[in-house]
Amino acid sequence: MTNQRVLAVQGGINFRELGGYATKDGQTIKWHKVIRTGGLDQLTAAGQAFLGDYGVRYDIDFRSPQEVLDAPDRIPGNAKYVYAPVFNVDETRNSDGTDKMTANLEKHPDSGFKHMLKVYRMVANEQHAKDEYRRFFDNLLANDNPDETLLFHCTAGKDRTGMGAVYLLTALGVDFATIKQDYLLTNQTSIKRIEGAAADAKAQGASAATVDSIRALWSVDEAYLDAAMTEINRQSGNLSHYLRTELKLTKNEITDLQHIYLE
After folding, report:
1. Whose CA is closest to 128, among 87, 177, 169, 180?
2. pLDDT in tens, 85-143
3. Residue 208, pLDDT score
4. Which of 43, 142, 182, 239 pairs with 151 at a CA distance of 20 to 30 A?
5. What is the pLDDT of residue 137?
6. 45 C-beta neighbours (distance < 10 Å), count
7. So where are the chain's domains?
8. What is the DSSP annotation of 69-105?
9. Dihedral of the CA atoms 250, 254, 257, 261 (nearest 10)?
């Protein structure tokens, strides 16, 4: 298989490789070792087969209990399913669907953007979220066989998944400018979904402010990441310290991660 940043997986959403990114000390993340994505509930048989051939052996699911019940993952038979709900309910609202989202937003049209800032502060602050990201790292550390891939995801593959990628890329020594670029790539890979949701809301007669809010809920924004970073810096001084003090990653574990994922 060729190495590609954006993966075309039948029935998949926002599928992306983390391979190929350079670290500050000149190493590179291995291809076919870790991928990030949105929901897997619509994967076709061909999509599942693609992931099996790709080497996916771990599926880390960051979604809430209700999201999992409503839309269970379709994964290759030889992949280990790991449940790691960052929130107990879908705080991102990405599983609501446009109808429900529009109805809620019409009451508070500017709330989409503000709500996402709150979500990112919660990701950084809530002990439950930290515990689940620690579970994510435990599985990343277990993924030490060659030619095996770990996949992690939520519903849209942008917020809970986005922060998972921020933490992993930081642990691997990737510079923050590259991390931010990877985070913002969602706005390109999900453009059809973002504009489709906005068009659906317009068709339902939503106000311009509500349409903007829907875009805010379906997109990523530097301000969202900044909101999380402000909380991370307040707690720990910086991202690297946060991994050690809040996610409890030891120096040896960070060395092991770099050994597993870098070349």
Report:
1. 87
2. 999 876 655 555 555 555 565 556 557 788 889 999 999 999 999 999 999 999 999 99
3. 85
4. 239
5. 98
6. 10
7. 16-257
8. HHS-----TTSEEEE--SSSS-TT-TTS-HHHHHHHH
9. 170
Q: What is the pLDDT of residue 114?
A: 86
Q: Are 72 and 40 in contact (CB under 8 A)?
A: no
Question: Which residues on adjacent β-strands are paired with residue 175?
Answer: none
For the stretch 144-180, what's the b/e string if a residue is b when 16 or more beta carbons lie within 10 angstroms of its beta carbon? Answer: eeeebbbbbbbbbbbbbbbbbbbbbbbbbbbebeebb
Q: Which superfamily, per CATH, for 16-257?
A: Protein tyrosine phosphatase superfamily (3.90.190.10)
Residue with tokens 């993924």: 143
Residues 6+ apart with CB under 8 A from 228: 120, 121, 123, 124, 163, 166
Tell me which residue has tokens 């996610």: 247
Within the chain, which residues score under 70 in pLDDT?
1, 90-110
DSSP line for 169-208: HHHTT--HHHHHHHHHTHHHHTHHHHHHHHHHHHHTT--H
- Type of residue at 5: R
Q: How many whole angstroms from its chain centre is CA 80?
A: 18
CB-CB contact of 34 with 149 (8 Å): yes
Which residues make beta-bridge pairs with 82?
60
Q: What is the DSSP letter of 4?
A: -
pLDDT attached to residue 204: 87
- Given this model, what pLDDT does residue 218 score? 87
Matching residue, tokens 């109805």: 103
As given in the structure block, the two tokens for residue 1 are 């298989």
262 bridge partner residues = 29
